[in-house]
Each structure stands twice: as structure tokens, then as C-alpha cells.
Amino acid sequence: MEFNLKEGITSTMEMHVTDNNTAKKLGSGNLDVFATPAMIALMENTSKNSVDLHLPTGYTTVGIEINIKHIKASSVGAKIRCEASLKEVKGKKLVFYVEAWDESGKIGEGSHTRYIVNSEDFMKKIQ
Question: Are the beta carbons of 55 and 47 closer than 8 angstroms?
């Protein structure tokens, strides 16, 4: 199946840092700051959302690689904005450039790779 995805597709998502997405709560650290796993989840979700509407019914994407730098801490209450941009399309392989900011500047950046899969077939293979 051919997919009509073009490089340059972007998506933006926003969220606030809460007690539930701190390093201390998620177990990735001991401090009440925005957790790296929470930032990565936001980056993956933003990437996924950027292409969801362009896929045929029954198809989705799955994340297979992430290379991220978390370059600045954000406190509870901070507003986080993430942008994903589709940089490369190779058949079913999609490579995104992702960035995240809080009110005082960039907090993270990197790349994220996803693959297009048929949801039903994918789930059958893992059962």
C-alpha cells in the first residue's frame, strides 16, 4: 500500500507540568521537575498526531527509535509546547525532528522514528 505522506508535515501540542509527570513521580529521578520520560511521551504523541489524519482507516504508526536531549529542567506548573516535523519519508518509515519549550526557552530536542503499520495485523503478530 502506498501512503500519501510528505516531508514538512508538522504538529504542535501543549501541556502543563503537574505532580503526575515529574521525575520523582515517574521514578526517573528524585526531583519535582518535568520528567524526561514525560517529555519523550509528548514528543512521540505529537509526532503520531501529525500523521494520523493522513493515514487510511485501520493504519497507525508505532515508535521504534528516539534520540533526545533533555537540555533544561521545567518546574511544576510550567507550560510545555512540543513541535514535531516530518523530515524524512522512506516507504513506511517516518523520521521526525522534535523540539520542546517551556516559557523560558528550549528544553529538549532530537529525532524520533515511527513505522506505519496495519493495526489489526500488528496486534495479531504479537498475540
Answer: no
- For 127, the 3-state DSSP assignment is coil
pLDDT tens across 9-39, in order?
Answer: 999 999 999 999 999 999 999 999 999 999 9
Q: What is the DSSP string of 23-39?
A: HHHHTS-SSSBB-HHHH
Beta carbons within 10 angstroms of residue 19's beta carbon: 10
63 is in an annotated binding site: yes
| Model pTM score | 0.95
- Residue 42, number of CB atoms within 10 A of its CB: 22
Domains of the chain: 10-126 (3.10.129.10)
* CA dihedral sign of residues 17, 107, 39, 114: positive
Q: Is 114 annotated as a binding residue?
A: yes
Q: Is 117 exposed, middle or buried (0-12, 13-18, 19+ CB in 10 A)?
A: middle
Residue 33 corresponds to which amino acid?
A: V
99 is catalytic: no
Catalytic residue among 61, 70, 112, 113: 70
61 is catalytic: no
